[in-house]
Design brief:
The chain is about 60% helix and about 15% strand. The chain is α/β, with parallel strands linked by helices.
Length: about 290
């Protein structure tokens, strides 16, 4: 059984820790254990319960009413939520629950159903990205086993690759982009999604993948002469020096614009100089692609 902190529950459910404590005092659905130092911790079952309760509460059900529901009624009410946003949040919660239970068959079936219904692009923007955003904090704080991370990301990676391979478009951008992740960066989901967006808009993509030495990038740049370089940085190794990376990129690829997106770009506060440019949101990335 996994254990989660109240902060984990807050991040995953969107319910503030203060509110969770009040619910514990007034209602019966959460009964945390405590460590020897009196710190709350919650089981995976309590996490799943809170996700469902938070969803129903957000879409109009009073907590006092939810507290009186049996498990069957709770599930029935969850399934009855029909609005598009509620549906998306329910599916994200189902993915979290499948990951916690290591039920990869259910996780994959959930994704496949949404892909069939809405397509790969909507699945990524409406389901996969919110899911990855919610569980990312658990990976960073080691509250999710690395095996779970590998299983989940590999399934998502497979869906993205299938989407990339099957993309068909009449658009032609007449631009080429070399895409890579530097040494120490293995989180490929964001880069693969941008690759899909580019190919679906007719951009020629040269995809090098993850953990690529800059000398290898330089070799391909000289050979292929791409119009742009692109990297999406999520979470790199501790030894990775972002300042040094930008400096080297600026010198090595002075004549090739380098676009960087992802969490590291979002949090970077120092001034950057051409040819490096940051795209700090998905909308900025899509605007860049549309401009090609």
């Amino acid at each position: 059984m996994h254990s989660f902190t109240i902060k984990d529950l807050e991040n995953l459910s969107g319910i503030k820790a203060h509110t969770i404590r009040i619910w514990e005092q007034r209602y019966q659905f959460l009964k945390p254990n405590r460590t020897q130092t009196n710190i709350r911790f919650y089981s995976s079952e309590e996490l799943k319960t809170l996700l469902n309760i938070a969803l129903l509460n957000k879409y109009g059900y009073k907590i006092s009413h939810i507290d009186k529901m049996c498990e069957a009624e709770l599930k029935e009410k969850i399934l009855s939520l029909s609005g598009p946003e509620a549906l998306q949040e329910r599916i994200v919660n189902e993915l979290i629950q499948s990951m916690v239970d290591l039920n990869m068959d259910k996780l994959e079936d959930t994704l496949d159903s949404y892909i069939i219904s809405k397509g790969i692009e909507r699945t990524i923007t409406q389901i996969i990205f919110p899911f990855m955003e919610k569980i990312g904090i658990l990976w960073l704080t080691n509250h999710i086993n690395p095996a779970q991370e590998h299983l989940v990301t590999n399934i998502i990676r497979q869906k993205l690759i299938v989407g990339i391979e099957t993309v068909s478009t009449s658009l032609k951008a007449n631009k080429s982009v070399l895409m890579f992740l530097p040494e120490g960066e293995y989180h490929e989901i964001g880069l693969l999604f941008v690759c899909y967006l580019m190919k679906s808009r007719g951009v020629t993509v040269i995809y090098l993948g993850a953990n690529v030495p800059l000398n290898d990038v330089e070799y391909v740049v000289k050979l292929k002469q791409p119009d742009y370089l692109f990297s999406h940085l999520t979470s790199v190794a501790h030894k990775f020096n972002f300042d040094k990376f930008i400096t080297i990129v600026t010198k090595k690829f002075a004549n090739t614009p380098m676009i960087i997106s992802g969490q590291l770009a979002q949090s970077y506060e120092k001034k950057i100089l051409p040819p490096v440019k940051f795209k700090k949101s998905l909308s900025e990335v899509t605007e860049f692609i549309a401009s090609l």
